[in-house]
């Protein structure tokens, strides 16, 4: 429809667009103001400097559960995410975790700390936990005043050495309200710091080989830290090996939340967030800092844990070659050979099952995606699945996937009920239920736009809003009724058609999704950073640990400082403004002068240049506009509000990017551009100073924000909690598939859907050709009077 | 039930006619010193540490202090500035920021609900003491607007939106977001009397429940900006600190004489910095980020300590010398309360 309208409007817009080329004013559409939070009305924050040095941190308050855990118990923290909210009427999460043989045999208790919304009705709501299918907790949800600690025995034989599965499920009902809207107010938050398995065996904490890294789990802190102490860093250039080891730890634990720090000596102060200390180097170098270093031989394994301290892992040898070899030996089992296509993205330590990779042209049953058949008696059913898309996915503008739904709803369900499909949090389809007498849906097709699909991990959520007369009356106790209204069956399938496959560059989403192109590198990835600076090195370690997880393999890397050597290769630059080689920022289309101003502003120093940034755009803004500009603006607004067509969509060709200037509110900017030769990409991680660089990269790499990386530039704001994406205007294509007409057709379809004026032009040209041909034909053969 | 009874008592106490006070709670010398530094001739309360801007909160504090100092003329002046320069919104609330160096002076037309509450509260007090029906009428109009525009229900709680726009459950992924220091508990009974159609008692109870629900670890201190999307946690986009906003919360609890000194007790230790200073704390780690030593901040900690342990407040904090707008304001608010209701602390 949009395309049709655009074709109709084409002649008019052509005039407009032509006008735009000569008219010296800004044509950006005047969108309705975004409802942003107002500038925080904060009270005065006097600029009083702290008169005394920072006070020592108050002693941490012992969590209430501490009193209950058996003395000397070893805790294996369970929740794979720092925020674990079970929201809505039904919510479930399951994931895998590993324990050692000793832990599996130890008497154990599960501790669970949770807080729930005031409106959750305890008599109709329950929280259950299963380990390996065996129920260990089944409780009414009743902790609305204060967080509550649940403790339950884990029966012998429940835990298995090695891999185990845990499933937490909440069924929640509102105390009084029967509306669908009220179900959004239902939540139970399970809190990581109080949720763990406590092993009574005092030796449960003794770990042995490198493989036991996966039994560490997420730790008590929301920001678990892994410190790699490599004394040789002071005098030897082996930063690349240290980062290989960080990747091996990431892959072995398979948890994206670890924050890596590289040091040449152990920290003097105890860090409560530290979950693992790794000592890397030759025995001789480590002797001073590891008093209990084994006397002889190469050694890779855990040292005995010290009271209250983190686990300690040793990767050592008598010579440099031996410990370098030791790194490769721990990397090998967790890496995969380059070029081998993955069937799944490994996510099981955060979410079961592993997300299958979908390359198009096939269907996947819900059973394989992790949705089980179940029936539901509430108002809003939700369930979600995850799957992976390849980096070269190129069908966001026109592609349509389908869900073939096997489901049923009872005759209590009224018309006006809805089945909604969300892709990565965006509405992708909405299907109204119109019949009154209930129905069984058998492979009922629901078209799902692929607009919000992205490379890497994707999530589809199915939401079913069920209206009933009973809810509209809402008599007391109505919310607790357990008569099923809806059922979903695991025979439903997700069908993803064949889609166009070509890489667009730059596009940070490819990096975020599967670490492309670095994830496929057979040759070492070129990294330019300040090797002698441990903060930059730690940032690089965090970055590579995350990329390794997304790529499913440990990436080879090498450091270089010669920009000329990188002109024709894929490279990564990690540095603070001013510390990056000249020309790098310009190459990825970032305004170098603006970056320097950014750095000065963060330091509170006056800008070096002394003048604010000047640009043609700002001058245009100042000049205002004449009648024509006003008219164009109001026309664009009308188009946008009436037909949902924006100026951005009305284009023949992708626009040109203006050099990006980081806003003062940003702590980190990630930018991608082609390398000078044009045969690869450069990705730059830049921050105003070293502290912001290491904190910024760490927060980005260790959190869900990583998956928000997209477009040409993504900036992380100073609170390190939200990102802003600047999409790429001009992109170039890079072929990944063998040439085939079918693929080219799909690519052309997507390109024309993105650049709809070109599509319209083609249509008009085609019409003209047909018209002229018909006219010519008729003039030769037609009847003349 | 007990809370409801207490609220009823507080309400009754508030409704009784104000008795003529023997001596003002803020001495004329203190008030003169404050005015000289922070209030200009037009009645504008100046935040000297923030580029000499003014805000609705400052005007509200100024009116409250003028009332407590018994200075009707100053009260009228500050109110007049507030009325003419800040009460510009259609909904009856005040714009929050007024910048002398900007043209026009109002650079952000959003409101800040604590400023509105303070203004309405000060007006209601003044209307009782100085028979001027216009004060009470204006107070009622603002109270009604606060109730209508900024009180929202969410997940069984009655919440105060920090501003009319932008903090609700639909406005942000982690919404609703509140600022716990905007709950000026002592003002709520007055609002109940002025705009009885709104759930002020529910607001009060929720304010206390939010503080009680904060986790013990890593820090029981409330952050300045709190997301209540699920379990309370620092709101995205703001520093996760017990900072310049939240440090007022113990004072507000104590001034309102709520029966929840356990909440103050929980906060006392973590907010105690070195040498009697007030610690600002990163609530995600429990680590202090700074220690404030201005007497206006120190007295906040000292007053909380007096309430919890009965420690008398050091004598040097009981005298007032203006330093900067914000700590000085909090200093006078603490002093006036000690003189009125907690003589043993002084």
Low-confidence stretches of chain B: 9-21
Give me the Rg of chain A, rounded.
29 Å
Distinct helical segment count of chain B: 12
Q: How many strands appear in the DSSP assignment of chain A? A: 36
**Strand line-up in the sheet with most strands of chain B:** 1-2-3
What proportion of the residues of chain B form beta strands (DSSP E)? 5-15%
Q: What is the residue-averaged pLDDT of chain A?
A: 82
- Distance separating the two termini of chain A: 41 Å
Overall mean confidence score, pLDDT of chain B: 90
Shape of chain A: globular
Question: Strand fraction band of chain A?
Answer: 25-35%
DSSP, total strands of chain B: 11
Assign the structural class of chain B, choosing from mainly alpha, mainly beta, alpha/beta, alpha+beta, or little secondary structure. Answer: mainly alpha
| Helix/strand structural class of chain A | alpha+beta
Q: State the shape of chain B.
A: globular
What do these coordinates show?
The complex is a heterodimer of chains A (785) and B (346). Chain A has 785 residues and is an alpha+beta fold. In chain A, 23% of the residues lie in helices and 27% in strands. In chain A, helix 3 links the parallel strand 11 and strand 12. The N terminus of chain A is likely disordered. In chain B, 46% of the residues lie in helices and 10% in strands. Chain B is mainly alpha-helical and 346 residues long. In chain B, a hairpin with a 4-residue loop joins strand 10 and strand 11. In chain B, helix 3 packs parallel to helix 5 and helix 11 runs parallel beside helix 12. About 4% of the residues of chain B have low confidence. At the A-B interface, loops of A face helix 3, helix 8, strand 11 and helix 12 of B.
